[in-house]
Design goal:
169 residues, mainly alpha, three-stranded antiparallel beta sheet, rod-shaped
Length: 169
């Protein structure tokens, strides 16, 4: 018998009813227990409200658990914030005339912020789709929201830059 921890499980066979996943805990109403494919394990958590991004147990809502995509999205959230603020500082310094940044650095910062946002949005969306079974809905929703909102700015800069014929002045 192979005992799988929730972190070892991926979503390759979502339609298999015997596959490991969160199940209603047979011992306590309102709780879920991890089913490893053969038996219930020690991993339990309070059941989230259906369709809710933030359940009453907020620590559980932000814990991605076995949801690998929500965990990647949570790291991507940090990367999106960091690259966005670096890109904003670099482009603002150039716009207001401080002129200490070369054009390739400006473009690289915009591309990095755009890529971070797109990758985070991708994993945030996938994490949300898998959250009902694996948890991590709040992490996925927060990452997706931040990626879409902050990703619009650098993507707009790239579009404007392309429309200007790749000339900054």
């Amino acid at each position: 018998m192979t005992l799988h921890s929730p972190a070892d499980i991926d979503d390759d066979h979502e339609d298999d009813p015997s596959r490991p996943g969160w199940q209603p805990d047979p011992e306590r109403d309102g709780w879920e227990r991890w089913w490893d494919g053969e038996r219930y394990t020690r991993w339990v958590h309070k059941s989230p409200r259906p369709g809710a991004a933030f359940d009453p147990n907020w620590k559980r809502a932000f814990w991605p658990g076995p949801n690998r995509d929500a965990r990647i999205a949570r790291y991507g959230l940090v990367g999106t914030l960091a690259t966005f603020f670096v890109q904003a500082w670099i482009t603002t310094a150039e716009v207001v005339g401080l002129g200490f940044v070369e054009p390739p650095v400006i473009v690289a910062s915009i591309v990095a912020a755009s890529l971070a946002a797109v990758i985070t949005a991708f994993y945030g969306y996938r994490g949300m789709k898998r959250a009902d079974r694996l948890g991590g809905r709040a992490s996925a929703v927060a990452a997706l929201t931040v990626a879409v909102v902050l990703g619009a700015t650098p993507l707009s800069f790239l579009l404007a830059y392309a429309l200007m014929g790749f000339q900054l002045y």
